[in-house]
Amino acid sequence: MLAQSSVAQRGAVSRRAQQDLSRGVSSVTRSSSARSVLAHTSPLAACSGPAPFRAPAATTSGRVAARSRRGVAPVVCQAAGEKMTVAITGATGLVGSRLVAKLAAAGHKVRVLTRNPASARSKLSYPGLEFFGPADWARGVEGATGVVNLAGEPIATRWTEDLKRSIKASRVGATTAVVDAIKAAPADRRPKVLVSASAVGYYGISQTATYSEDSPSGRDYLAEVCRAWETAAQGVTSAGVRLCVLRIGIVLAPEGGALGKMLPVFQIFAGGPLGSGKQWMSWIHRDDLVDLIMQSLSNPAYEGVFNATAPKPVRMSDLCSALGNILGRPSWLPVPEFALMTLLGEGASVVLEGQRVMPTRTQAAGYRFKYSDIGDALRNLRPILR
Ligand SMILES: NC(=O)c1ccc[n+]([C@@H]2O[C@H](COP(=O)([O-])OP(=O)(O)OC[C@H]3O[C@@H](n4cnc5c(N)ncnc54)[C@H](OP(=O)(O)O)[C@@H]3O)[C@@H](O)[C@H]2O)c1
Questions:
Q1: Which end of the chain has fewer surrounding CB within 10 Å, N or C?
Q2: CA distances in angstroms from 75 to 259, 298, 366, listed in the order given
Q3: How does pLDDT run across 2-17, given as a tens digit for each residue?
Q4: What is the CATH number of domain 15-385?
Q5: Residues 192-205: what's their mean pLDDT?
Q6: pLDDT tens-place string over residues 248-294
Q7: SS3 of 199, please?
């Protein structure tokens, strides 16, 4: 089921469609009649006031989004106490497991769409969780309020040709499977939204350019993977389902993630920048990513592409000096590329090369980052850095 899909068969998305996706205009929702269908069939219809990509100031019911004390915009459009049922692929991973915990804590129902229900059960245990294996994903999405698609073979590992194929095929395959499952549901039992992961690798790499959601895609391998991944997700819009694609930056989380891979090398080499130090790191704290996913589920203003990156990307040398300050280590000896290549092979490109990505549309839609500053984010993760 998770084998690579034939994107061509499904009708490759044209350049125009890719641009529409970036602007948040799907072929379905471009028409006002389709928009009104969505407004009437969505359980969130009462808050379908703002057009896509306008900063949501107030709901049609007059509820203005209050800001929490730490500056994170709360879920804007979900009526107070209204519970969602959310189906999630990749729920067992670094991001998914935290999302499950937050949704469960808030009283929402969670359905875990996994390759292996037995293994997923051993990783996630919250009251009321339901587990669905690949043959059962259609049942898993039917009747759900929304679907979050996070599945994919890990990237920051040693790449082989086989693994590169799997990195792409796992994402396109899982996304196609989830889109097919959504489309197979009867219209009145179909989820209203698909929040689908992509990555900032979409833009390619550069030490000088700044990318926003409207920027064109790059030419390298990861850009190609992201395009195919997003194209597979785009298929859901023909069924009148709102699509929100999140181009995710390097996720900083207590369990490690990319940072966890960098730390041992950083420590061996007395805390200098990895590689040239000039490469950009567009990062996001996992708490912000999870909050953004929750907002994307419940707020119809999130339609199209959004960069899931903190508004202050940093160069690797700045990240390492912030890390050095927190760890009480100097940060001036560069870590040679060969050390990382030895550890990660070609997969080291995830930290040796980067791009400066701004969350332009994400902030315009009203999202307020809890962690904008790399120092604050790293200080929050300090307990695991020692
Ligand atoms: N973490 C980052 O820094 C970062 C940055 C940019 C983009 N992203 C993207 O965001 C998504 C979530 O990231 P994450 O860090 O939480 O990922 P993760 O920890 O690697 O977890 C991804 C999940 O995908 C499923 N999976 C793993 N290998 C698979 C394969 N070969 N085929 C199909 N499914 C597979 C697994 O779920 P089951 O075993 O339950 O099926 C796994 O728990 C990923 O798609 C990732 O590419 C992450």
A1: C
A2: 29, 7, 10
A3: 333 333 333 333 344 4
A4: 3.40.50.720
A5: 97
A6: 999 999 777 777 766 666 666 555 666 678 889 999 999 999 999 99
A7: strand
pTM of structure: 0.82
Q: How far apart are CA 269 and CA 262, in angstroms?
A: 11
Name the pLDDT band for 344 (thresholds 50, 70, 90): low
> Domain-by-domain residue ranges, the chain?
15-385
Contact residues of ligand 1, CB 6 A cut-off: 2, 90, 92-96, 114-116, 120, 150-155, 166, 170, 174, 197, 199, 248, 250-251, 257-258
* Token pair for 171: 């994402």
Q: Where are the beta strands (DSSP E) in 32-124?
A: 85-89, 109-113
pLDDT, greater one: 136 or 348: 136
Phi, psi of 87, deg, nearest 5: -95, 135
**What is the Cα 266 distance to its own chain's centre?**
26
Identify the residue with better confidence: 43 or 188: 188
Residue corresponding to tokens 């550890």: 343
Q: Which of 1, 88, 95, 351 to mutate to test the pocket of ligand 1 (most atoms within 8 A of CB)?
A: 95
What is the residue-wise DSSP string for 96-119? Answer: HHHHHHHHHHTT-EEEEE-S-HHH
Q: 89 CA to middle of ligand 1, Å? A: 9
- Going by CA atoms, what residue is nearest to atom 26 of ligand 1? 152
Among 14-23, 123-132, 197-206, name the one with the lowest average pLDDT. 14-23
Dihedral of CA 265/271/275/277: which sign?
A: positive
Protein residue closest via CA to atom 38 of ligand 1? 114
CA 94 to ligand 1 center in whole angstroms: 7
Report the 10 Å Cβ neighbour count for 16.
Answer: 9
